[in-house]
Design a protein that fits this description.
2 copies of one chain form a homodimer.
Chain A (H helix, E strand, L loop, with lengths): L2 H4 L4 E4 L1 H7 L2 E6 L9 H11 L4 E5 L3 H13 L2 E7 L4 H9 L3 E5 L6 H11 L4 E3 L5 H17 L6 E5 L4 H12 L5 E7 L4 H8 L26 H7 E7 L1 H15 L9 H8 L1 H4 L3 E6 L6 H8 L6
Parallel strand pairs in A: 2-10, 3-4, 3-6, 4-5, 7-8, 7-10, 8-9
Antiparallel strand pairs in A: 1-2
Helix pairs in contact in A: 3-4, 3-7, 4-5, 7-8, 8-10, 11-12
């Protein structure tokens, strides 16, 4: 199985209703139809196909765990995914369905990193994979940057990218550079988890005290990755910090005006357009929608307009 | 403006999670990202671009009205859309946004067809457009058949299509024929609105007494179109009748396993796979998802699993 053929091309969606609602020319690059429902599969498959190890271990309760489990199944490798004992059963089952082993960790008693360290000692032959801080992750995600460079209409001058650990933004920057595509890359991160923004201002990585409680669960990280930071510094022209309300509004707007189901983290880029229209006025913007996996119960709450009973 | 460039290509989605859930190889052809959110724009644009009249009048509370209003705006024509006075305000506004005139009709006092007749007399220069029974509608929808013929993987042997008035199925049959693509075309219609199925068995068009109260509002028609019927007779290999519960289950499954927001009518094709797995066993199936426009309140109810409070 070739890695290239297993990756679904990103879904470009031109939506005049959305553009009218925003007053900005916007095209969506949706990774919601990527294998396992998010861009994480790009990094996971590249990583699984690249490392010589037969066993890969990672800590993730979310999209990376599922993506890595699927990637290992496709490449004939074994995977152990460390997940909090409180993880939604549907997420645990999604990982198990691909044949991966789930190591449950009671995060009240033991940190996930600590459990990961124990497993690394038990399995010295394993590759320990970070969901966002690994050159292989950047290289895997760079395929999306190359795709955008090749497939976006030539007048698109701005690409807006959700930022959690920064692996997607770094990959897109690298991919655009590889194809010599001139486009401004703007990051979008939750105000509640604005460590990337603070880090860029400080000129060094600034860490959150704990995982921030934003609804954008893909951005609940303590800091951007060390491999990503220098790329973000040279490649990001701006970061927009968005409120939780704007994230919810962006999820609703994608539903109503674009027929697109996005997870909150995926809607960060559109939330940036809602938050700072001045940054995007007169631009031709591509919003990267990084994933679509959201629990029905969470989604139902997001669809209710604010103030409804 | 060329008609061809204004039509968005259908979005092909390969979803291994969905295939696993169904036990059938399935690819989705989603028209939910078409302009105005449904396949109806194909017919509306072709019609507006083809007729010499400067004014087009149609009765539609749903996707065709919005599509025709948009198509007339793009082709520099005027549109009058007859809508029931009880139509959701959001639907009326969607039509008005494109500059079309909305004629409200109190369906308790006067039928939509009667109001349409009055308007035809008042505007003898106007083209009266049917949402589904017009050779121009079939020709417009045939572009989807040609796209499927050209873009579906060669091993896809079965195309499942929602049936209301039959205009989409007829268009797909014609488009596949034009490209000499051999594929079985299977219709999917609500059990509550199974007039197409009964018509094919009877060998003549059988009419419902009134518009059937199915949740698939695109299939709330009194009968299939007279232009469509002979094409359905020669081109459909089967029709699967699906229950309201299976329609809701299909909407949920598209949400959970494919990250796709579909309207109930759009999910009819997937509901057919749920209803009659025997018909599709061992096949490589393309499910046409005809549209995605559904009110948030209706969608929220559909996402709640059966039996939940």
């Amino acid at each position: 199985l070739s890695g290239v053929t297993a990756i679904q091309p990103t879904t470009l969606i031109s939506c005049s209703r959305l553009a009218e609602a925003l007053g900005v020319n916007v095209i969506l690059a949706s990774e919601t139809f990527q294998r396992t429902g998010s861009f994480k599969f790009r990094a996971a498959l590249h990583l699984a196909a690249s490392v010589p190890n037969d066993l890969i271990i990672a800590a993730s309760s979310g999209n990376f765990g599922q993506a890595l489990a699927c990637a290992c199944a496709l490449t004939g490798k074994r995977a152990i995914i460390v997940m909090p004992a409180t993880s939604a059963r549907v997420k645990v089952e999604a990982v198990r369905r691909y044949g991966a082993r789930v190591e449950s960790v009671d995060t009240q008693l033991q940190g996930r990193a600590q459990r990961l360290g124990e497993l690394a000692i038990q399995h010295p032959d394993a590759y320990i994979a970070s969901a966002y801080d690994d050159p292989l992750v950047i290289a895997g995600n760079s395929s999306l940057g190359r795709e955008l460079a090749e497939r976006l209409p030539p007048d698109v001058d701005t690409v807006v990218v959700p930022i959690g650990g920064g692996g997607l933004a770094a990959g897109i920057i690298v991919g655009l550079e590889q194809r010599e595509r001139m486009a401004r890359v703007v990051g979008a991160e939750p105000l509640l988890a604005n460590d990337a923004s603070r880090s860029l201002r400080a000129g060094e990585i600034v860490r959150n005290d704990s995982e921030p409680p934003t609804i954008a669960d893909g951005a609940r990280v303590v800091s951007v990755g060390e491999h990503n930071f220098p790329i973000l510094r040279r490649g990001l022209s701006d970061i927009v910090e968005v409120s939780e309300d704007q994230i919810a509004e962006a999820v609703r707007l994608l539903f109503v005006a674009a027929n697109l189901k996005a997870e909150p983290t995926g809607a960060l880029s559109l939330a940036a357009l809602l938050t700072r229209p001045d940054v995007f006025a007169g631009k031709n913007v591509c919003c990267v929608i990084s994933g679509g996996n959201v629990d029905p119960a969470v989604y139902v709450r997001l669809l209710e307009p604010p103030g409804s009973p």
